[in-house]
Amino acid sequence: MSQIPTIKQVRAYTLQGGGADYHDQADGHWIDDHIATPMAKYPEYRQSRRSFGINVLGTLVVEIEDSAGNVGFAVTTGGEPAAYIVEKHLARFLEGAKVTDIERIWDQMYWSTLYYGRKGIVINTISGVDLALWDLLGKVRGEPVHQLLGGAVRDELQFYATGARPDLAQKMGFIGGKMPLHHGPAEGEEGLRRNLEELATMRERVGPDFWLMLDCWMSLDLNYATRLAQGAKEYCLKWIEEALPPDDYWGYAALKKNVPTGMLVTTGEHEATRWGFRQLLEMGCCDIIQPDVGWCGGITELLKISALADAHQALVIPHGSSVYSYHFVATRHNSPFAEFLMMAPKADEVVPMFHPQLLGEPVPVQGRMRLSALDKPGFGVELNPVCELHRPYTH
Ligand SMILES: C[C@H](O)[C@H](O)CC(=O)C(=O)O
Ligand SMILES: [Mg+2]
Question: Active site residue: 319, 327, 333, 395, which one?
Fold first, then answer.
């Protein structure tokens, strides 16, 4: 057997601009247009998520180089604080290790950061390192990540679209459309009426059979979420997403009992690790969990989360995250479809989710993606050289 390369150097960079929903989008983009948020109770922070700092962190880029000159990389949220954690803390667990030591490295990253980590930015950072390790291993082996995960269980992925225009997504071949909720409890009865009107208008446009979902981005309370779900029954809402703050497991368990029969409760994009998802699953909080592979602990942890969900008969439909989730979804029976986040400002065309950061990022065609689009080594993407990388710390 040929010798397994060892990890020579770990480098952490930051990058501003573009890059999915927590990054810098220009004025007029649907993703930052009066979306209901937990900050909407303050009128001055209601119109735009950038106003309260959704883009402050920017992107973390992790690069891992091995002794044979292969370089794996990944992008996630976390920016400069995450770069500090990689360089000053996590790099020690990688340098000198074999490129196959992924499980041991994850374990050491998690337990060594426990005293200041567990969730949020630290787990985003660990996720970025883990994804870069899987990318590197794929490049060393000359195989796509889905093959390293045990192989695909289907030849084609099917997508629903998240964006302001499910009616256009329907024409583009997606199986459903998830709209952002625009008004939270602070906008009172008038806001609730407008939320339901928007849903009614969209149902009218897409006809009776197309899936319609509402993404509430943690903005509601149990009473409001229950009333919204009950009002939305008439318009056959397929699921109500992230209605409550992620820590309100008790609220989710109650909401799941309160929603009309057949309507699904989904959540989990801001949840992390097997322990967080265990809480959601054991308390009966939702029907579908939506881990983001760049935030929940990476692929290594998502495998564990997914097995746990399967045993609870819950589906795993990862949040956004492009190629990092496509390679995973292709390999799991309990992930029968995937999300595509419409990053075109008017949600009127399919554009790569992480544009301009990645080169070679595949996108759905007619709401579908052939497995052959994911056949390159690693995650099959490259960093776009036009993006300016900044390395704020070294070790
Ligand atoms: C549209 C939502 O507010 C959010 O930005 C994206 C999201 O939660 C999702 O794709 O799910
Ligand atoms: Mg969501």
Answer: 319
Tell me: the pLDDT tens digits for 239-285? 999 999 999 999 999 999 999 999 999 999 999 999 999 999 999 99
- How many Cα neighbours within 13 Å face the side chain of 50? 15
What does the block give as tokens for 145? Answer: 């990540």
* Pocket lining: 341 vs ligand 1, CB cutoff 6 Å: yes
Partners of 64 in the β-ladder = 10, 72
CA–CA distance, 270 with 290 (Å, rounded to integer): 9
What is the Å distance from ligand 2's center to 268 Cα?
A: 8
Nearest CA to 225 out of 235, 239, 212, 211 is that of 239
d(Cα 195, Cα 125) in Å, to the nearest integer?
Answer: 35
- 315 pLDDT more than 90: yes
Q: What is the ipTM of this complex?
A: 0.99
CA of residue 178 to ligand 1 center, whole Å: 9
* Tokens of residue 307, six digits: 């097995």
Helices (H), the chain: 79-88, 102-112, 120-141, 145-148, 166-171, 188-206, 222-232, 249-258, 273-282, 298-311, 322-329
Per residue in 42-53, pLDDT (tens digit) is 999 999 999 999
Of the pLDDT bands very low, low, confident and very high (cuts 50, 70, 90), residue 2 is: confident
* CB-side neighbour CA atoms (13 Å) of 163: 28
The residue whose two tokens read 């809402």 is 237
